[in-house]
Specification:
Elements (H helix, E strand, L loop, with lengths): L1 H24 L3 H22 L2
């Protein structure tokens, strides 16, 4: 079970790191704004699942 948790945590952090790398080095200003707006739009809905 500990191994599964470690693998899932690594996958989540790896995906987040990959998206952040793309955001910093490969997205232009319009794409960065779209990524920021998407995160801030869905954040209230995600908080319902994080804090039931």
């Amino acid at each position: 079970m500990k191994f599964l948790f470690t693998v899932l945590l690594g996958a989540i952090l790896g995906a987040a790191g990959a998206f952040y790398y793309i955001y910093l080095y490969h997205a232009d200003a319009g794409e960065q704004a779209l990524m920021r707006d998407t995160i801030t739009t869905y954040l209230p809905f995600l908080s319902e699942y994080i804090n039931p």
